[in-house]
Each structure stands twice: as C-alpha cells, then as structure tokens.
Amino acid sequence: MEDSYIIQGGKTLKGTVQLSGAKNVATKAVIGALLMKGKVTLHNIPRIKDIDELVHLIQLLGAKATFVTENTIEIDGTTLSSHTVDMLHGSKIRTSFLLFAPLLMRFGEAHIPNPGGCRIGARPIDRIMNSLKELGGHVDYDHTTGYYHAKLLNKTKGTYVFEKPSHTGTDFAIMLALHAEGTVTIENAALEPEIDDLITFFNEAGAQIVRNKTTITVKGVDVLAQTKPYTILSDRNEAVTFAVLGLITKGDVTVGPIRPELLTRFIAEVEKIGGGVEKTDNTVRFFYKQAFLPSHIETEPHPGFMTDWQQNWTILMTQAQGESTIHERVFENRFAFVSELQKLGAKIEYDTTPIAEPSVYYHFNYDPSKQYSQAIRIYGPQQLHNGVLTVTDLRAGATLAIAALLVPGESVVNGVSILERGYERYVEKVTGLGGDIKRV
To answer: Is 149 exposed, middle or buried (0-12, 13-18, 19+ CB in 10 A)?
Structure first.
C-alpha cells in the first residue's frame, strides 16, 4: 500500500452524499462511554482511522469496545484495568488526552502521553490542564518520558473559567464534572454543536448538564447508565468538503442527513459568492449557478466560519473572479497546504498586514516573540494544472484531493491516510458522484 490517491480530474461531480457521523462527537462519546456503568451502544460512528486507533487503545486499557455492525459500536468500561495509556497508540490521536477523565474517576490517577493528531499549531493543552487543576486535580509532565501524570486530589468541584473558548477543553471539563461533588460551573465554554450533542448523550444516561449560552453547569451524579442507544449527529466538516467539491467542479451535490442550521455561516458565504443552495429539513443541496465572487473570511469558533472549513474554501476561491482573503484566527501554522496548491499554479500570497491587538484577536496563545503567517490573499480565477501533492493535515488532505479532482489530467495525492483519519469511505463517496479516484 503506497498511501496515495491517483485522480483523473476535470469531471463535473453530481449526486447525493450520505454523511458519516461527526468525528468530533464520535471520539469524545466513545471515551465518555467509559464514565458510564455497563454497556453503552453508539450508532452512526464513522469507521475512520482515529476511531480504529481509539478502539484499540481502549482495549489495551482492559475495557471492551467492539463494532457490532458497520457503524454501531458497543463499549463497556467495567473491565478497565490500567491507568497508563500506551505511548504508540495514545500519541497518534488528539483525543487520547480525554482519557484522563474516565481513568481518574476509576483509579484516581492516570499516565497519558503527549497527544497526537494533526500538527496545526501549539494547541492549548494548558487550558485542559488548568481546568483539571482548578477542579481538584494535580498534573505533572515528564519531559524524559513524554508522559503527563495526573492525580485526583479531591472530588471534582468548583468553577472553571476558560481564558479563551476551547472545544476539546469544554468537552474535557464536562466529563471531569460528571461525577462531581455538588455542582461544577464552566464559564466561557465553547459553543460548538458537537459539544451539545455530547451533552445530550450524557443527559440521556442520567447526567444533569445545563447550558446557558457560554455557561455550562454540571450537577454531579453517582452513576451514569445508558437506557437506550444513542445516535450521534452527522459531520458538518464532511458536508462542507463535498459541498465545495460540487461547487468547484460546476456540479450539483446534495449532502445529508444534516440540519441546515449547523451550516448557517457556510451557507451564507456560499450564497454571497453566487453559489446555489437549497435546503430541506435534513439535507442541503449545493450547485453551481454563476461565476464565483471573491470573499473575505476570518475564521472563528462556532457560530463563526470554522477553521476546519478554510482550507476547502481556499481552493474554491482560486476559481473566484478577483482577490479573496482568508485570515486564520483559531490556530497558527494552518496554511502549510498553500505550498502544495502553488505546485498546481495557484497564485496565493501571505498577507503580513499587522494586527492591532493580536493577543486579543487570535484565539490561540499568541507569542509576540514568534513570527506568524496567519493571512493569505488568493487571486482568481486561475487555470490550475495537475501534479503530485503531499497531505499536511486532515482538512488540508481533503483540499488537495478537491484540487486534483478539479484540474484535468492525472494527479497523485500522497499521505492520504492522514485524510482518512477523518473521512469515511472517501473514495467510494467521490466515485459515487462521478469522480475518477482510486487508492494505491
């Protein structure tokens, strides 16, 4: 296996895409199931590499995790027997860090290696660690081993205020608070719908979690136990990828099942550039109508334009009539894919216009001693050509595949296992739209 796609591009893509379950719910819900008593059943879990790694990791810890059908998994944490996460598998996925919650609840301590996932900047692990400390834990990092060692000194209680909203940090604080002594309050919590889906999953199992905008209160309970299987929501990042694929190839793609309001900001931007959109209760159709207008995007946490959408949007703007800009505010180092698009002839330049208050403007931990490249200018429309590309991170991988499907001729995309960390049956779904793609 060469870990590559061979793509014959230039075809107009049309059809319907059955969306998979949301990666950013699935990985958290699988871990969250370990906080419950007895067997937990989850439907609509995508068969992606991150889930495969997580399942193996849970099994190494002594718990049970098994797919009983293609997208239904059963988890039982009753037999958890170790509080040390395997270095090899734990370092491969970002969400392995969330295992602190069930391991601390079970054993009172846990050893977890520095988490993996896409290297798209220094993600704010400190926000997760600070919440653990504030809510009753202690944590040290051993630079010689690469492991964090945490202990639960007291039963979880208190209030934690995030300096800046953190999606994964909010998930973790909720998990840590489920078996709290009294009520835990989480302030400046992130607003992502995937968090709300996780809250519903826990509440159906007996948790007492209430959200009031950016304040989440969790009243601790002694036991959580699932009474019926839970079906997670669809992946809005996958929806955007296939929407862009339909638009950029002058095609017509319908994605679902998904509630259109989960894509409100993206849909608004598509309509502003002249793209076609039609909504039903649980599908959205994206189709080409006219030459695209340029756009000016700033990424933000939900309900803003997601950081996970900007790479796909970048390739779309190479086909717009004029100059577009994208300013990445959520993560640093998320434009590594730009040099790959330039191999195909894309005219994209970095914009170095200074920001007045960068520590406030950016959602990551801004370091004034560092050099950042956080904005780009995209000039269009451009006639790109085929080439050989290398995937730099998950969403960038989808962007490079879109570029290869756009341009006539044969292209090769290498390192596609990174893309497959977050996309289920990608080749099959693209082929179903009329694309010419095969994995080698």
So the answer is: middle
Instruction: List strand residue ranges (DSSP E) for 157-231, in order.
Output: 158-161, 183-187, 208-212, 215-219, 230-231
Look at the pTM and tell me if it is higher than 0.70. yes
What is the tens place of the pLDDT at every residue in 344-387?
999 999 998 999 999 999 999 899 999 999 999 999 999 999 99
> Is the residue at 201 inside a domain?
yes
Domain that holds residue 150: 23-220
CATH of residue 290's domain is 3.65.10.10
**What's the number of domains the chain is made of?**
2
Joined together, the tokens standing for residue 259 give 């509630």
Burial class (CB in 10 A: 0-12, 13-18, 19+), 52: middle
Report if residue 227 sits inside a domain: no
Catalytic residues: 118
Rg (CA), the chain: 22
Whether 204 and 240 map to the same domain: the answer is no
In what side-by-side order are the strands of the sheet with 323-327?
296-298, 323-327, 375-379, 348-350
Residue in 264, 191, 194 with CA at minimum distance from that of residue 232: 194
Token couple for 280: 């039903």
Q: Sign of the C-alpha dihedral, residues 173, 87, 61, 139?
A: negative
Quote the CA–CA distance of 173 and 194 in Å, as a whole number.
Answer: 15
Question: What is the rounded distance in angstroms from the CA atom of residue 243 to the CA atom of residue 52?
Answer: 27
| Entry field: residues in the chain | 440
Q: Are 121 and 332 in contact (CB under 8 A)?
A: yes
358 vs 367: CA distance, rounded Å: 9
